[in-house]
Amino acid sequence: MSSLDTTIPNGSWVLVTGATGFLASHIALQFLKRGFRVRGAVRDVNRASWLLEGPFKSYAEGGAIKLVAVPDLGADGAYDEAVKGVAAILDTAYVTNIVPDPNQVITPAVNGIRSIMNAAMKEPSVKRIVFTGSAVSASALTQDIDNGTIGRDSWNDAALEAAWAPPPYGLSHAMANYAASKVAAEKEVWKFVQENDLPFTVNVVSPAGLMGEPLTKAHIDGPANWVAHAFRGNTQVMDQRLASFLSDVKDVAAIHVGATLDPEIKNARLQSWGHSIHWNDVLAILRKIRPQKQFIDDYPDPQHLKISVDQSGSIVLLKKWSDKDGWTPLEDAVLENINNQYLVD
To answer: From what superkingdom does this record's organism come (predicted)?
Structure first.
């Protein structure tokens, strides 16, 4: 892997936004291990100090990772200072508000894309930008219906329609706002690409659910840790989506690395969903590796999502940039998700 041609020189600075996130922290670590330097954009530098400890400590002591505060990702000029001198940007940050008003979720998400793009346009060192999209940008991932085939031009426009339905804003808006924000943000990415003569290349990597090794306790306690919900029997969350896709966080991080460094990947929309799963698949693995623990009963009549998605581009990058022949096996990723100091029986 060390002999591969790269779009940016080894030792270059890369900016990772939302660096405290589950995926973002693994992306940062993989770049550091490859000899790159990482500038982590975070909302609060003090609360993000764990990114300078543990597996990051030796890199921090050598000056290879630095943290920079970007408290409001949607503000004008939010990233102007953060992008200075970086060769690549990996934008994983997203608006975490779970509120009914779409103006508080979708609008800042779109503004965040514009802020990143505008800052990059003014910084001649930037050669690549990789945005983290989402499977829900392309599909509602709805059970009990045929979701069809996901292609380059597949969009979950129904989420936008639901989120922007007229007020009064209620629970239905709050439920739709996250998906809608991901749809709107990615559409803004490609609109910017189409309307401007960019001096850099843009790619989008879109995962579904993530699992695997947490690097801090917040990665276990967060709402998007699907395996932790099953481990704890959190049916309030599990009941909302019985079937989906899951991938190991390190796999998706490696695809982000490839989408940044691979000269052959340009204007790619990489669906990186991983394994098609039903909760019963995860519960079966948990019972196998924790036979002493009592888990919730299986759901009756389990059905996987009826959907077809081409993930071949992601698999190619995974092989090329991490020497894996495919997705990390589901059982291995679940084991890593629960065998740590943060999740206890």
So the answer is: Eukaryota
* Cβ count near 198 (within 10 Å): 16
Four-residue CA torsion sign, 236, 241, 246, 250? negative
Q: What is the CA radius of gyration of the chain?
A: 19
Which ranges in the chain belong to alpha helices (H)? 22-33, 57-61, 106-121, 135-138, 157-163, 171-195, 217-221, 226-232, 235-238, 249-261, 279-289, 312-322, 330-338
Tokens found for residue 82: 């953060």
Contact 321, 4 (CB under 8 A): yes
Taking only the tens place, the pLDDT of each residue in 113-171 is: 999 999 999 999 999 999 999 999 999 999 888 999 999 999 999 999 999 999 999 88
Q: Name the token pair of 97.
A: 């508000």
Number of Cβ within 10 Å of residue 285's Cβ equals 22
For each of the domains in the chain, give its residue range(s) and CATH number, in order of start. 13-212+247-280+308-327 (3.40.50.720)
Distance CA 322, CA 268 (A): 19
Specify the amino acid at residue 96.
T
